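Extended Data, panel c. Modelled sequence:
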Amino acid sequence: MPMTRRWSIARQLFVLQVLVVTVLVAIGTAGAVLLLRDDTEQAAIDNVVGIAQAVAHSPTVIDAVDDPNPSAVLQPYTESVRLATGTNFIVVMAPDRTRFTHTTAALIGKPFIGTIDGALRGGTVIETSVGTLGESVRTVVPVERDGRVIALVSVGITTKALNRKVLSRTPAVAVPTALALLIAAAGSWLLSRRLRRQTHGLGPAEMTRMYEYHDAVLHSVREGLVVADRTGRVTLVNDEGRRLLGLTDDSLDMPPEIGDLLASKTPVADEPVLAGDRVLVANQRVIRSEGQTVGTVLTLRDHTELRTLTGELDSVRGLTEALRSQAHEAANRLHTVLTMVELGRTEEALQLATAELAVAQQLTDQVVGAVREPALAALLLGKSAQAAERGVQLVIDEASRLDDSTTVPSRDLITVVGNLVDNALEAVAGTGPPREVTVLVVESDGEVLVRVGDTGPGLPEGAFRRGWSTKEQGRGLGLALVKQVADRHGGSIDVSAGPGGGAVIAVRLPVAA
């Protein structure tokens, strides 16, 4: 059986608002009608009391009471007053309740039905009771002469007449009530439409399930996820994102590189970013709704190990190419030597063979003698081979001195020297001769100084930011990694122009005691 779709939040809110407004308006209308009825009844009481007192003080009534036939005078008089005032009956009676007047002539001479005790004592009686004309609001007042009650006057208005007056005033209440209901319904409808657009017509159960699904996805996905609002404030980081960025449960302080990327609010695809000791690949998407930017979503993938392997592979590939080139060159020289021996020019052949060995041994002796740190010495020898393959002269400064007892980790030294030399080789690769890269590595005065100069075009501003590279259309992290190492050791980086042009980068790493 197909699942019945439940009402959306917008529809539920609309129905609830209509019900609440209807109940409130109904209560208000009922109160207004009751107040209107009370006001009408009170006005009727004031009216009949005033008319009764006016009739009771009328000389015509006082004089006619003593006549042998009071009805002959009083009946026409009271009827004229009743018609003029819009009351339903005016009864003049004797103290013993005998009626002298009545709207219905057949009831004249018969006893009055109602309370008169208070009026006989000189007071005013006001009551709602059922008489010969039905239920009515009536009053009874005394007719006095010389302080003695000689007759009574009763004036009344029937309840039906009061109800007709209330009904005649109902439009004054009904029209505002109807307008209030229409305005409230229109406002509720507009609000429900806006809410429907914002919630995409989903119901509470559907939104709850969606939240649970999304929450499960956020916690289980193996990519880091960072969500920021339109102001750049981070609102959500999933578990993998916290791990990659080194965030605690209570902290959302982003690394500077990530903060700059979020603040830029620009789409990014596979952008390398440094976060602590990790190399991350970032993809950023700007979220828009109705033409307005509502936030950004940043995903992060850990490429630290991949970058390390790629760097090692590039180094091995470079060394392999250099060795292949050297093997080819050595084969050419060996053929030359053999040919010279066959030609009987043994002395010249020996000089040619030993000259190449001397140059290679001299470079090895220079590097190993100056740099006793084995990993760094091996790196410099490998870079020398790469430089020679590219037609670049790699010069190890004679002042270089670094013992294997230095407290700066070999990994950090290789990162700094390797990346600086690689960038220098790339910088001079497309320039005219002389193409030269100079390296100085020396430990003195409590710090290790690594200085690499080249004869290239120099470094542009911002070269140590993420993503800058000397490679054409490339996105490198070499100089950013160098800066990261310097920052981690509390060191410094100085960039200056070389004497013959190009750039000279000096990195100072304090040595721990």
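DSSP finds 14 helices and 14 strands in the chain. This feature is highlighted in the accompanying rendering.
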